[in-house]
Design goal:
The chain has 19 helices and 24 strands. The protein is of the alpha+beta class and about 675 residues long.
């Protein structure tokens, strides 16, 4: 039990929504909105001047523009958001933090600073985030140039993008980059696991979100305050086109909003010292953080085990049963996020219980990474009004990738703040099995789940997660020139159907027809063995040092830049006469002395795709052989024989280079 005076407490909350004005030059920038939300939270405490003067830490949730190149801010860069907000509100915090990306971040921040405060750090912390994506889109469309840049300097702890567990090489190589497509894969996997038809599952999604629309319609800060019927949500129309299977426009999070929210957090002791009225206080009880694996590695695509662990940990740590929770605010970027959270809590998602206080990301507004700050504000506000009970906030980042869950109380918890052991929770999850992934799948495979990208209501490109005959998992996409496959998948449920795949370029393509797959990207293989007059163990030690390639392969000519470490690392090489080449280490097996790597450059030496395996074979005392296998796709207009001759020469030169290097080191 902690000292009751070290109990963390929320003392100020603020949120706002700004409609895009007719004259967009008068609209607020993200920084403007953060300033307004921050001042609102400070005023809400009842002692704004004291709070601003006493502020120790100011943390800003990373904006979408700084999270991904998909949403760049064309109107100027803000160098230091936390210090810029602090300057505008007249604060001088000792620490300024700019967070990771991810919708889990606001709740993760409350948990982080609650733990610090409970441990004796008497800080007063302002947490804030804001987006003006709605105005950005309108201004770009109208070709209006806005000036939103800010060059405020000073100390900052920039935590970086934090994209681990969110998007991996297979997703990037296959062009699987948008949230509706990635969540569509998970949603269809859940539908299949439930045994629902596509029509039955659409109805279930519609019923879930229909209740959300009614909440948003009454919320004063909602960006899209309109109630919809189930039919209006799920039936395709001119205003509700399909976005990605199984979603229509009304079923997905909407980021075109101008919203901001802020929370002021401190200890009970600091709050009493400053004179915060008791009626302003809401108490964090506990919080958990658990990260999932990359999508392609998850054994069960229908639900998130990491989410299950995060929710169960909060229930156990707080000692609060689901039926004792008065207020639920579940992250709702897509229906599956809500369904999975309800499964973790053991409640019926369609049982009539209120699952949101805001109306959710498709209807209240998906304010970038900061949506769950609005969740916390609304839970705290209603707990103040009730003066009793518990509220739970579930937050999610990435593709059901990062989970942060928090419990809040209207009254000081009897046992004080209860800290979840995040390392143990993550270790528990990490101990769960994960699937073996095939980076370069070929041949027949069975579809586990799918999604379809639509343009103006027409299915244009399809994506699948599938299993090879050996049971390995992979991601693939339909060929850009193949209009038939997306249309066929749109017309008939493809889950469980056999397709044929072939790795091509920076991804894997699939087709229903073996002949079609073969004609799209014919497979080319070169196998070669070079005998060397050097010791096999010594040769393997040199070969296995993936980053030291130039030392033996080119005699040191060229330059290398390494990214990462171990399997998955990339070597970026600038080699005379060959140019820039980037290759990823895919396998390193010391037992069999085998190394596999693949090209991640767009092209190389006449090839659009290239992967290779090389193995050291002992031939006798002081002798070994390098057994090469290269899989490649020639660029259009390049004969495969030309590439084969080039590769054969390269393998021979590299083999002799390795032999000479090993003997020189002996």
């Amino acid at each position: 039990m902690i000292d009751k005076h070290r109990q963390p407490v929320i003392i100020g909350i603020g949120e706002l929504c700004e409609r895009v004005p007719k004259n967009v030059t008068t609209a607020s920038s993200p920084l403007d909105l953060m300033e307004q939300a921050s001042l609102a939270a400070c005023r809400d405490s009842g002692i704004p001047d004291k709070v601003i003067e006493a502020l120790d830490v100011l943390a800003v949730v990373r904006t979408f523009a700084d999270s991904t190149p998909m949403y760049p801010n064309p109107f100027g860069r803000v160098n230091n958001y936390p210090r810029a907000v602090a300057r505008r509100i007249g604060a001088q915090p000792r620490a300024a933090i700019y967070t990771h990306a991810g919708g889990n971040t606001p709740q993760a921040l409350v948990t982080e600073f609650s733990e610090r405060i409970a441990a004796g750090d008497n800080s007063l912390v302002l947490l804030v985030g804001g987006e003006a994506i709605g105005t950005t889109k309108s201004a770009v469309k109208a070709d209006v140039k806005l000036q939103w840049g800010d060059d405020t300097g000073g100390q900052i702890e920039d935590r970086g993008l934090g994209l681990d567990s969110i998007i991996d090489r297979q997703q990037i190589d296959n062009g699987l980059a948008t949230a509706p497509l990635m969540y569509g894969l998970l949603e269809n996997a859940r539908r299949s696991a439930q045994g629902n038809s596509r029509e039955e599952y659409a109805d279930e999604m519609g019923k879930l979100f229909q209740a959300f629309t009614e909440v948003a319609a009454q919320h004063p800060v909602a960006a899209f305050p309109k109630a919809y019927s189930v039919a209006e949500l799920i039936e395709v129309s001119d205003t509700n086109p399909p976005i990605s299977a199984p979603y229509t426009r009304h079923l997905v999070a909407k980021d075109g909003v101008n919203q901001a929210a802020a929370v002021v957090l401190t200890s009970v002791a600091r709050a009493l010292e400053l004179g915060v009225p008791r009626g302003k206080m809401v108490f964090p009880v506990t919080g958990s953080n658990v990260h999932d694996r990359y999508l392609v590695q998850r054994p069960n695509l229908a639900s998130s085990e990491a989410m299950m662990i995060a929710y169960r940990a909060v229930l156990e740590s707080s000692g609060v049963a689901p039926e004792e929770i008065s207020l639920l605010e579940l992250y709702s970027c897509f229906p599956i996020a809500v369904f999975n959270a309800c499964e973790a809590l053991g409640i019926d998602p369609l049982g009539g219980r209120a699952l949101t206080l805001t109306g959710g990301l498709p209807f209240f507004g998906g304010a970038g990474n900061n949506y769950s700050m609005h969740s916390i504000v609304n839970v705290a506000s209603q707990l103040r009004e009730r003066r009793t009970g518990y509220g739970l906030v579930g937050a999610n980042g990435g593709v059901l990738s990062k989970h942060a869950v928090g419990m809040y109380s209207a009254e000081p918890p009897e046992n004080g703040w209860s800290s979840c052991d995040h390392k143990s929770l993550q270790a528990l999850f990490n101990s769960e099995p994960y699937l073996e992934v095939d980076q370069h799948a070929w041949g027949p495979a069975v579809i586990e789940t799918y999604s379809i990208d639509y343009k103006r209501g027409i299915p244009k490109k399809a994506y699948i997660v599938a299993r090879t005959i050996e049971g390995k998992r992979f991601i693939a996409h339909s060929d850009p020139g193949d209009a038939e496959t997306p249309q066929r998948m749109h017309a008939d449920d493809p889950i469980g159907k056999t397709v044929y795949v072939t790795s091509a370029g920076l991804g894997t393509r699939f087709s229903y027809s073996h002949s079609s797959a073969a004609s799209l990207v014919p497979k080319r293989v070169l196998e070669q063995e070079n005998s060397l007059a050097c010791d096999g163990d010594a040769a393997w030690q040199v070969l296995a040092d993936f980053g030291n390639f130039l030392a033996w392969a080119t005699g040191g000519a060229g330059t290398a830049r390494l990214e990462g470490d171990g399997v998955g690392m990339t070597r970026h090489l600038d080699i005379p006469e060959l140019g820039l080449v980037s290759e990823r280490l895919d396998r390193l097996d010391h037992a069999s002395r085998t190394l596999a790597y693949s090209m991640v450059s767009e092209t190389m030496a006449g090839m659009a795709r290239y992967s290779a395996t090389v193995q050291v074979i002992t031939e006798g005392a002081g002798r070994c052989a390098l057994r090469w296998r290269g899989d490649f796709e020639p660029l259009p207009g390049i004969e495969s024989e030309e590439v084969e001759n080039s590769l054969a020469g390269s393998y021979t030169l590299m083999s002799h280079g390795l032999e000479a290097f090993v003997n020189a080191q002996a």
